[in-house]
Design a protein that fits this description.
Layout (H helix, E strand, L loop, with lengths): L4 H24 L15 E2 L5 E5 L4 H6 L6 H12 L7 E5 L13 H14 L3 E5 L1 H7 L17 E5 L2 E6 L9 H11 L1 H7 L5
Parallel strand pairs: 2-3, 2-4, 4-6
Antiparallel strand pairs: 1-3, 5-6
Helix pairs in contact: 1-4
Length: about 200
Amino acid sequence: MPATEDEIQARYLERAIRELNDWARELQGCGRCPRGRLAPVLPSGHPQADVMLLKYAAAPSEVEEGVAFYGRAGNALLRSLRRLGIDPLTVYGTLCVKCPLAEPPPPARSCFSRLAAEIAIVAPKIVVVMGEQALAALNTLPLPGREPLHAQEGEIQQLTPLIDALYVPDIDRCLDRREDKQRFWNAFRRLGSWYAAQPPY
């Protein structure tokens, strides 16, 4: 008897969870960064999310909890996603540099390969790129069919034939001043119309 669509989706989800668990174990065993006893900052969210949020490095609250987008940035994004009608449970958030250092070094080649593998596992339909450092890092990844992205706030661009990208300011730098919050929102809200236009299958 052929598998139903729900059964097929469940198998894809199980595979993504298994692959991300293997990926996380490899990340936790990395000895390249001088982080001492601190654990890497792990991603958060759905392993098959349509929307991937990408920052360059962790804020102090994220280092403390060991989870990406924990704290002020995460709370602000939750409110923004709800305002746009996007279920936060269908979003995945990660960092270019997972090392919990106050001043993260430029990503090593292994960091780039891990981020590329992470994108391949999650297979998002869009990556929301936050800030110029994250943009520069993403522009070096060995993704099949990758197109160069530009720092055009609020513009949907094509990252690969299967993945769009939206460039927005770095949210961690936009939370203290009203005008910076408005600038972030003006760019980020483009995600709402993109999401609404996606086919329901």
